[in-house]
Amino acid sequence: MIDLRSDxxxxxxxxxxxxxxxxxxxxxxxxxxxxxNRLEERAAEIAGKEAGLFxxxxxxxxxxxxxxxxxxxxxIICDARSHILNYELSMMAWFAGCVARAIPTSDGLLDWAxxxxxxxxxxxxxxxxxxxxxxNTHNFGGGTIYPQAQLDEICSGAHGMGLPVHMDGARVFHAxxxxxxxxxxxxxxxxxxxxxxxxxLGAPVGSMLVGPQKLIDKGRLYRKRLGGGMRxxxxxxxxxxxxxxxxxxxxxxxxxxxxxxxxxLAAMPGIVxxxxxxxxxILIFDVAGTGLDAGEFAKRMEAMEVRMIAFGPRFIxxxxxxxxxxxxxxxxxxxxxxxxKRA
Length: 343
Ligand SMILES: *Cc1c(COP(=O)(O)O)cnc(C)c1O
Description:
alpha/beta, Aspartate Aminotransferase, domain 2, Aspartate Aminotransferase, domain 1, 2 domains, seven-stranded mixed β-sheet, three-stranded antiparallel β-sheet, 14 helices, 12 strands, 42% helix, 15% strand, binds pyridoxal-5'-phosphate
């Protein structure tokens, strides 16, 4: 089976498994797990932030961040297809008591003019804005990357109006790989960043939330409330350290594979995708012209042992990752061609 549904399907490397077996551990709720402590320090250092918090999932990292920055009754500005709005079971409402002020975009990326137009002050009718959220890279925008000036302008504009900025950087290391810019520089103006160790970076479990010491200290209490106070979590952090230190260097391979697949698919009748727009490891293409509904397309590919995800009736998403190297991508493309011929 070639699984291109998501980079979450990557399994830990042999090196990660060995490090997990050998990990020095303690009780992390007492902050006595040396491996978790090292991971939190390294994550903060690499991101250029004061402190880090190891969380079991990206959703928990985002949930804690939204809660840290807001009060109940605030609005959170985000783009309309953001993960926090569409794929996190309304945790911004459930835990932080906030509603989303969603801005439609073509590629998932906000700009300051659009954000500024939606900032609301406290008044007799409107709820005030509490936070601006950006997603980089943008998942459902097709792995798109914020142009740095556009992101920095959002941050300075928001800060100028007293608003913090949180980055859902689940795949921010893909932006690092694609732009060659260090993480520190990309996130320099955002207040907090969440990134996943468990996606393209290959760790079995875990995400990081990084930001100012005071916020992260408070975030540790929210993590406990949400059931994320893990004990000998150094077993997981040991894999996370390898994910953080070694895996970013190979992500451009995934980007090249995604671009290559887009170029090959674009030449097939009925498939519409612009290879020039493939910025990272996510490839979303339109299959309406094949005469197949996207769900049916994915189902037929599944029967041919290639997995992908249908978004609505016309779009398919493919995510490249290290458990699907170039030759797997080649086989996947051949099988798509074969399936289309039969159809
Ligand atoms: C995967 C993802 C998350 C977090 O997902 P978890 O499954 O909870 O780790 C958050 N934001 C984006 C953009 C994602 O793609």
